Structure formats: C-alpha cells, structure tokens
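Entry, Tuesday afternoon. Goal for today is a structural model of the target with flavin-adenine dinucleotide bound, before we commit to ordering more compound. Inputs were pasted exactly as handed over by J.K., no edits. I checked the ligand SMILES twice against the vendor sheet because last time a stereocentre got dropped in transcription.
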Amino acid sequence: MDFDPTEEQQAMRASVAKLMARCAPQDKLRQWDAQRVFPYEVYDAWVEAGLLQLPFPSEYGGLGGSALDMAIVVDELSRTSTDLCMVYSSAVFCGLNILRKGSEAQKAYWLPRVMDGRNKFAISISEPGAGSDVGAMDAAAIRHGAGYRVNGQKLWNTGAGLKDCVLSVYLKTDKRLPYRNGMSLLLIDNDAPGVKLRKLDMLGRRCAGTYEVFFADVDVPADRLVGGEGGGWDCLMSGLQLERAVSAASSCGGAQAVLDLARSYAQERVQFGQPIGTFQAIAHSLASMQTELDAARLLTMKAAWLVSKGRDALREITEAKLLASETYAKLANQGVHIMGAFGLSAEYPMERYFRDARSATIAAGTSETLRNLIAGLMGLKKAKT
Ligand SMILES: Cc1cc2nc3c(=O)[nH]c(=O)nc-3n(C[C@H](O)[C@H](O)[C@H](O)COP(=O)(O)OP(=O)(O)OC[C@H]3O[C@@H](n4cnc5c(N)ncnc54)[C@H](O)[C@@H]3O)c2cc1C
C-alpha cells in the first residue's frame, strides 16, 4: 500500500498553491465576497495553468489527469476558496459529461471551449419542487421545429450568471414517462432569448453566486441535446461519482483553511498570560479537528484513487462526500468558536469560511440523501438516490 502522492502530484499541488496565493490573496477574496463578484482573472489563470485541461484525454487536447489528480487540485484550490472552486468544478463536471455522453461533433465543438475558458458552465438540475427528489422535476423541453422549446424554472444553479456561461439543463422531454425516465440534457446559453436569471441572496459562496433561472419559450437547436433524448438520467449518473469525489475534496481543502487559521490564531492569541492554544480545552479541540480532517481526506483520496483505477467506488465516494462535508461544516463552527468574537468579524476570513462551509452538507446531495444511499448499498433499504 502506497499512500504517497507522486512527485508530479506534489508539484501540481505546490503550483496550484502558488497560483492561488498570487491571484487570490486574502484581501482580494474579502473584497470579492463583499461585492459578490466573480474574479474572471482567476479563471483565466486556471486556464493558463492548464487546470481546465487536466481531466480531459490528450486526443481532445487535454492533459489526461486522473480523478486523483483532480481531487488534489480541487483540495488545494479550495484551501483558498471553496466558493471560487465551485466554478472550476462545474466546468469540469459539465465538460466530462460531454466527453462521456456527447457525439464526436459535440466533443469537437465544446471541449476546446471548456479547456480554453471561452465558456463557463453551470449545472441546472434543482427546481422549487425537485431538490433531493431530482426525478420530481417539472421543467420541460418539447420538440419544436428542428429542435426543442423549453419552459420551466430551475433553482440554486451555481455560477449560472457568469459571463459566457452555458447551462447544462436537465429537463423532461417526455412527461408521460414516470419519474427519472423521459429526462434529457440540453446545453443552453445563459443569455439565450427567453432565459431570465435572478441572483439569489445566499449565506455564502457569493462570488460564484447562486441563481434562479426561468425559461420562457426558449428555442434550443437539436445539436444541443447531449446523450440522446431520454438519456438525461444516464448523463447525470455517469458524472455523479466524480462530482461527489470532487465535492469531498473541496470540503477537505476548505476544512484545511479553517484548521490552518484556527491553529495559528490559537498560537498567537494570549489570554490569562498564555496563548489560548496551550489551554487543554482548545488544544484538544484542535487535535480533534486535525484528526477528523485527516480521516476525511484519507477516505476522499482513497475514493478518488479507486475512480482513477476505473473501479466502482460508489460507496467510498458517497462516504467521502458525507464525511468531508460534515467535517468541513463542523470544523468551521469550531473555528469560529476558537477565535471568539474575531471569528465572527470580517477582520479575519473565518466568518467567510463559516458561511461558505454551511452549504457543504446540502449541495451535491444532502447528508440524509447520502446516508440513504450508503444504507441501500449495505442492503438496508432500496437505494433510490
Ligand atoms: C450552495 C449550493 C449550491 C447548489 N448548486 C446547485 C447547482 O449548481 N445546480 C443545481 O441544480 N442545484 C444546486 N444546489 C441545490 C442542491 O442540489 C439541493 O439544495 C439539494 O439537492 C437539496 O435539495 P433541497 O434544498 O430542495 O432540499 P430538500 O430536498 O427539500 O430537503 C430538505 C431536507 O429534507 C431532507 N430530506 C429530503 N429527502 C429525504 C429523505 N428521503 N430522507 C431523509 N431526509 C430527506 C434533506 O436531507 C434536507 O435536510 C445547490 C445548493 C446549495 C446549497
């Protein structure tokens, strides 16, 4: 058993850390969060560094990186900001769906646009009546002329309002078919006629932004259909393992940032004549945080490694997403507590970490959804999600 990342992976992590320190220093992160703007220059730097090329095979101009490489990059990006990293993850997730399920013509058209940053991508699944219960979706695309006409509403779409963003929209193309059947994936420009966006006022992740999207008689050409008509659920499932592995890695990076700050604060902050980190209560709290993060990261990297080997890792990935997201949210709460009132003040990034962390146990599958799935895989109930 070898737990060491390769030299290339160590170098990749170090170069991502350097890039983020240069492009996204703390004062800028604080400013972007306050102004609720996304820094396109950071995205450009990711493109220039080849991060968007990383998971795609060389025959399409990619770098042929593995799921484990992705997990390492996302962990490191999220150590600076889980908020910004969501924009990276969405683009990769949508691009990989096109790679897996698109036609050769679609791959030739879209993959260069993913890799050179011409387009950003957002995932558009959730609706007011369809959250954990994705199959309950109501937004629909019906055949119209040579393509489709789309009507309906989506909710909580991360990054949907970014410049040149293409929405990967999951829609019912046949409402006669029950539940997850009759669902298809269409790629729709966020500025197509009939598309309206509303940026929502959310607790965290304010740079990527969370959007409500309305579709009113939006005409979409047939060549924007990925995976064939009725192939939407298959497209969604084909990428879900990677999405959850990446989401777990992001929570590890976010939790690492929390721990780094809480530890250094505890070493510096003096009360009763000694650093608070020397009080056993605080030292034990930090020791538990370190232990929980190490466990979450180990499980995450093992799950990503299994995916890299082409092995089925549904249980490990689901467990990793569950443990890492709960660890991130828990550590952020403890991090605020260790810093006292400073933990709640914008003087330090801990309050932003806390806000950004809270959604980790909700987005990309709630903890209950994940426990249901793990229980199903253990033979305890029928797995639906
Ligand atoms: C920051 C953020 C970003 C997001 N980004 C996107 C995005 O880019 N694209 C997108 O499409 N969606 C996105 N979402 C939506 C996300 O996928 C949903 O919030 C999630 O699936 C849960 O749905 P819901 O919020 O409607 O909660 P609900 O499904 O209504 O659940 C409410 C509560 O009930 C529990 N619950 C539901 N069903 C069960 C059950 N069977 N057993 C036990 N408990 C249950 C849930 O666990 C939860 O605690 C995002 C959400 C957040 C917070």
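The chain has eleven helices and ten strands.
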